[in-house]
Amino acid sequence: MPNEPQRVHTAPHRYDTGRLYSLVEKLFLSTGMGNAMSRDVTECLLTADMIGHATHGLAIAPWYLDEIRGGGMKLEGSFELISDRGACVAWRGHRLPGPWLVNRAVDCALERIERFGVVTVTIAEGHHTGALATYLPRLTDKGLMAVLACSGPASAGVAPFGGTRPIFTPNPLSAGIPTRGAPILLDVSCSITTIKRSTQLAKAGQRYPGAWALDADGHPSDEPQVVMSGEGSLVPVGGLDHGHKGYAMALLVEALTQGLCGTGRKDALSGIVMNTFLQVIDPAAFGGSSNYLDEMTWLTDACHANPPRPNIDKVRIPGDQARARLKDARTAGVRLDQAIVQALEPYLAEIGEAFPPAL
Hints:
Blueprint: E1 12-15, H1 17-29, H2 35-50, H3 61-70, E2 80-84, E3 88-92, H4 98-116, E4 118-126, H5 137-140, E5 145-151, E6 173-177, E7 184-188, H6 195-204, E8 213-214, E9 220-221, H7 225-228, E10 233-234, H8 239-242, H9 244-259, E11 274-281, H10 289-305, H11 320-332, E12 334-337, H12 338-350
Parallel strand pairs: 3-4
Antiparallel strand pairs: 1-12, 2-3, 4-11, 5-6, 5-11, 6-7, 8-9, 8-10
């Protein structure tokens, strides 16, 4: 989101994941956050670093802590039930931690999926959700397909294709697709890059690799600062040539996360607020679980076996690289940029703790 602080990256070191988990969880517990919320937030942030989504990992833990102190992220109470038709559930999240809210939505879907076959949960006005890919294995491990999307109705950084004024956020759309082997796990944004990445490049004095932004007059730019100033905008996926594709994706996510939530940009919300859409699908309710798994396994095998083009070792499916990074982090420690370590040290000092030594 545009209000999130970012820091210039320096050389990463590896750290023991178990020690990091305990330390970060203790940080959130020290704020008065309950056990379940602290566990869900810690798991979400640390897993993001482990799978390579560093912009959504411990880099944003200081921002979360500041949001709690400033009252932007709420810790008391629970979500409010707006509507419940069994297979269709709508909540209002009251700015509670996004990872806790999304995990409760997953719990709700798992409780009902055998009865209904498809369960959809929307969450209006929660706080930041973190990396969407971190939630998907809870569902794919059970042979369930999931679609998860979110958007920030109080923020904007992406203009509609052909326009010059930002309306949307990058609007991530993710999906988990089980197979007989490793699942397909996709997590993509509707813009060509993200606000977080733009802020990071701007602080480092670097440019985009191409014309990924438009200035206030609609001229292509490779300068992240035109986006960070609030006057320019990010280009949708597809760029200046085929950006209508990313624009269409953004509209879909807006419909799922704001139209279905019943609360969105029309309400002129402020601060950090996130609307979320989760749909869980049981293949057994359709063509059968076995047929589904056979079909999706055939497809992933065919992709992996496809002859690679020059300078490509092997064709991957979404999720392959994240799984390899996760396995590496579990055995050899998670890689963390030293700027992230330095940013967390003052918060740890306040509770009498220090960052663990690098491995």
